[in-house]
Amino acid sequence: MIKFFRNIRKKLLSEGKTTNYVKYAIGEIVLVVIGILIALQINNWNEQRKYKNLEVSMLTEIRASLQESLHEINDMIQRNEKFVDNYTILLDHINNNLPYNKSLDFYFGQLEHWVSPYFNYSAFDTLKTLGAELISNDSLKKRIIRMYDRDLEFLVNDYDKSEWNYSTAVVHPFCSKNLERDIKNNNAFPNDYNKLMKTAEFKNIVTSLIVMRSDGVRRSQDLKSELKNLIEGISREIEKLN
């Protein structure tokens, strides 16, 4: 192509057609410039497509991570609700001075148990490495950051630590002193049932566990709702980008 244009210019010069040569040269320059601009535009489109594909891939990864967290929250709610039911049975025996029966050993064995949340942050860590500006939807970006940095972190660093601190400082020492643990069956039975059920400290512990665990369930349910809304928002954004 370049050789073709060069031959035309030589022919025009040899024929003395300088004016036509200048016009042709200018036209050739314009064509070259247009060609360069088109090439740059195509390259820009390709880069934008690559960037958009990366954004979709990142959002898909975050959505999968949040879906895992949602499953974790569901499991946490169900199991902690069961703990509340178990403690309520013990409290009912305390308040109504009900006699001991063997089935209570299971509930005594649950006093030091709770469900700790485990969330996978690998997708969010990848986003932070690539840069949060990768997500073009500012509102969605803020919701994702808030979910990881505030909402999920609350259950890990506030609620779970409160459970841990109360268990290690109060529940475990009391249970070690007043209960015999059946490791094989994961149960426990009181050294002196009648004395235990009349102990104010035991009633306070059971009541505190019910309150604390119920609060954790309530907060987990709120987080579950937020997670579902965020996952739906991410799905809509992925569909729009595709």
Share of helix, binned: over 70%
Give the spatial strand order of the biggest sheet: 1-2
Specify Rg, calculated over alpha carbons: 34 Å
Counting H and I runs of at least 4 residues, what is the number of helices?
7
What overall geometry do the principal axes of the alpha carbons give?
Answer: rod-shaped
The domain tally reads 1
> Given the helix and strand composition, which structural class is it?
mainly alpha
Could you report the average pLDDT, rounded to the nearest whole number? 86
> What's the total number of strands?
2
Largest sheet: 2 strands, antiparallel
Keywords: Membrane, Transmembrane, Transmembrane helix
Pfam families: DUF6090
Transmembrane segments: 21-42
InterPro entries: DUF6090
